[in-house]
Amino acid sequence: MKKSNINIRKVDELPWQQTLGAMFWPELEQTLCDLEFIEAKCRAGMTYNLIRDFTMAQTAWPQYVDMQDIVARPLTDALERVRMFAHFVSLHAHIFVRDAAQVIPFAHNYATRGPVVESADRHLKGRGWRRYPWIELVDRPPLITKPTLLRTFEGHRGEVTDVAISTGRRIVVSGSKDGTIRVWDMDTGFTLRTIEAHSVNGINALAITPNGKLAASAGGDGLVCFWDLESGLCLGTMVGHSGEVFGVALTADGRYAVSGGEDGTVRVWDVINGQLQKILVGHFGPVSDVDICPDGRIAVSGSWDCSIRIWDINNEKTIGYLEGHTVRVQGVAISEDGTIVVSSSGLPALAGGMVRQPDASEVRFWTADGTCLFVGKGHSMGDRGGKLLGILGTIIYDIAMTPDARVAITGGYDRAVCVWDVKKRRLLSTLTGHLDSVLAVTIDHTGTLGVSGGMDRTVRLWQLMGESSLPMSTRQRIDKIGKGARTSVSDKAILLTRNQRIRKWILTPLLSVILGYYVGYPILVALNYPSGAAPLIQLAMGISSVWLLFHAVEWRMQLKADPHVWKSDVVPRFLRVALGLLLLPLWPFLRVLNCPSCGQRICGRRRLFHCVHCGWRDRLL
Q1: How far is CA 228 from CA 233, 269, 294, 363, 599, in A?
Q2: 405 with 340: CB under 8 angstroms?
C-alpha cells in the first residue's frame, strides 16, 4: 500500500469520529485492531497520532480502568483486545515511524498467541505476504497481559547517559553523548523538543525539576548548563570544574544545583544569579555522581575513591562518611528527608597496578549515620562475560530512588534494570529489553514508572509492577525468511560488509588472496625473492592490506555522528559496485532483510545474521 493510495483524512479522523462522535464501540474495535489500518496510518506519517487514538479510545471506553489501577474491575473482551494492540503499537512505534511495512512481521513475532498474532497470521496466510523481506522467529515470547516495557523512545545518535521524568507534564527528558537533550511525550513517544547542549564530548549527566520546566546538564566540556525546557533556551552556563563533570542535581524549586566532576570537588551553584556558591572538598578521586534533598540542605556524592560523603551545604562540611564499597561508586541517591542513601558500584579500583577486589559490584542501602542496611548483587554478567570482564565483574552504572525511600532501580552492564524494595531490602524484579549496557535510570515519585537509557541509544519507559517478559529478545533463533523484493548490487554489497562473520570467514580471505596476488606478486618479482617463500609472503601482505583497508574504513566511520551505522556516503559508489561484482558468485547464498529487533536492513544468510545497529544476532551463531 503506497502513501498516495491512502485516504489521509479517513485514517486521521475515523477513530475520533467512532470514539467521540458516535461512540460506535464495535466499529472502533474493528478499526483499531486492524493491522492494515495501523499500517496505513503509519505509512501516512501518523504513527504518534495512532497512539493518541488508542489512548483516547481506552479513556472513553465503558468500564475503563487505568493500567496502573491496582483494584481492576472486569473488562470487556473488546477493550482487552484494544489494549493489546495499543501496547503492540506503542512498543514498536519507533520502528514503524521509519518503516511501516514492518507492522505485520512484527505483529507475527509479537508473541506466541493472542489477538495481535492471530490477526497477523490471517494476513500472512490469506494473501501470501511476499512484498518485503521478513524474519519469523522460533522462540517467540509468551503473551504478556501486564507488560513492563510500555514505550521505546528512539532518536539519539549517541549513547544515552542520563534520563529524567516529570509525571506532572507527562514528559521524559534524556541526555546523550551526541550532545543533545531530547524532551519526549511520555504518552506517544514523540520528540517534543531537541536542544543542542554540549558539543564537546557530549552530556554526562542531566537533572530536571519536578514540574518539568527547568533542566541542568553536565558535559564532558567541564560546563554546567541550565535550560528552559518549554522554550529550549539556555538560562546560564557555569564554568568552574577543571575537568569533565560527571554528576548534577537540582533542588525541587530549581533555585540551587550541585555538581561533581573529574577534579574531585562538589560545587553548589545559584541558578538564578548564575554564581558559584560553595566548593565542597573531601574526595580523593573524581566524583562520579551527586544528589541533593528537595530543600537543598543536604547533598550526597559518590567517588572513584570508593567512598560516599553526605554534605551539610549550609555549613560546608561532611556530616556523613559511608565506607564499604571496594570498587568505584558509580551512582548515589538520597531520600527527601536525608535519612536513607542508596549507592551502586562497579569498575574495580586499581592499587599498585593490581585489581583490589574483583567482582565486587553491588548495591548498598545506608542510613545517614553510616550504617549499611543491605548489600545486593542483582546484576550478573550473563552472556556478556569475556576473559577480562569475567575477572573484573559487572558494572552497576546508575541508581535512582523514590523520595520516600520505598523503591529503587538500578541499571548495569548486563543490559538489565533491577527493581529493589528499599523498605524490605530485597530484589523485586529484573527487567530486560535493552540491547546494550544500561547507563542511566530514574523513577517517578510514586514508584510505578521507571525510565532507562543505555548504549543502544534508546530510552525506555517501564511499568515497574508488570510482568518481566518482553515481546522481543536480542538473541532469538530464525525459523524462516519470507521472500522479498530484489536488492541492487551496490546495496547488497554495502549491507554484506556489516556482517561480522561473513567479513571474517569470506571477505577477508577472498580479498587477501586477490590483493596478495595483484599487490604482493609484483613486489616479490621486483625484489627477486626465492620462489618457495613467495606464497607465504604474498598471503601475509594480502592479509595486512585487507586489515588496513577495513580498519581505515571503520576509522572513517567513527568520524561520523553515528559510528554504528554504515553510511552510504562513506564508500564511493563505484567501490561498492566493484565489491558487489567481486562477490557476485556468492549472491545466491545471501539475503537482505530486516532485523526483527530494530527494523534496520541487514545482509547475511541463515545462521550468519548480525545487526550492527542494535546488536541482534542469530542464536545459532
Answers
A1: 5, 17, 19, 34, 34
A2: yes
Tell whether the model's pLDDT for residue 526 goes beyond 70: no
Helix (H) or strand (E) holding 265: strand 265-270
As a whole number, mean pLDDT of residues 401-407 equals 91
Distance (Å, rounded) from C-alpha 614 to C-alpha 58?
A: 32
Split at pLDDT 50, 70, 90, the class of 560 is very low
Cβ(438)–Cβ(162) below 8 Å: no
The residue type of 132 is Y
CB burial of residue 352 (10 Å; 0-12, 13-18, 19+): exposed
CA 432 to chain centre: 11
Domain boundaries 150-463, CATH class: mainly beta
Question: How far, in Å, CA of 245 to CA of 204, rounded?
Answer: 7
Q: How many Å apart are CA 83 and CA 67, to the nearest integer? A: 9
pLDDT tens profile 189-219: 888 999 988 888 889 999 999 988 999 999 8
Question: Where does the pLDDT of residue 117 fall: very low under 50, low under 70, confident under 90, or very high at 90 and above?
Answer: confident
- Helix, strand, coil share of the chain (percent; to 5): 30, 30, 40
Residue 442: how many other CB atoms lie within 10 Å: 26
The tens digit of pLDDT for each residue in 27-43 reads 888 888 888 888 888 88
Query: Contact 261/243 with Cβ under 8 angstroms?
Result: yes
Collapsed DSSP state (helix, strand, coil) of residue 127: helix
6-36 burial: b if 16+ Cβ within 10 Å, else e: beeeebbebbeebbeeeeebeebbebbbebe
**Which residue type, as a one-letter code, is found at position 122?**
R
Asked if residue 296 lies in contact with residue 277, where contact means CB atoms within 8 angstroms, the answer is: no
φ/ψ of 389, rounded to 5, equals -70, -25
Percent of the chain with pLDDT over 90: 23
What are the C-alpha distances in Å from 157 to residues 76, 196, 341, 568?
42, 12, 33, 17
Which secondary-structure segment (H or E) carries 538? helix 534-558
Question: By C-alpha distance, which of 40, 35, 47 is closest to 11?
Answer: 40
Judged on CB neighbours under 10 Å (0-12, 13-18, 19+), 584 is: exposed
Which pairing describes strands 203-208 and 191-196: parallel, antiparallel, or unpaired? unpaired
Instruction: Report CA 615 to chain centroid distance, whole Å.
Output: 12
Q: Indicate if the pLDDT at residue 81 is higher than 90.
A: no
Q: Where are the beta strands (DSSP E) in 470-571?
A: 478-482
pTM listed for this prediction = 0.70
340-348 vs 363-367, strand pairing mode: antiparallel
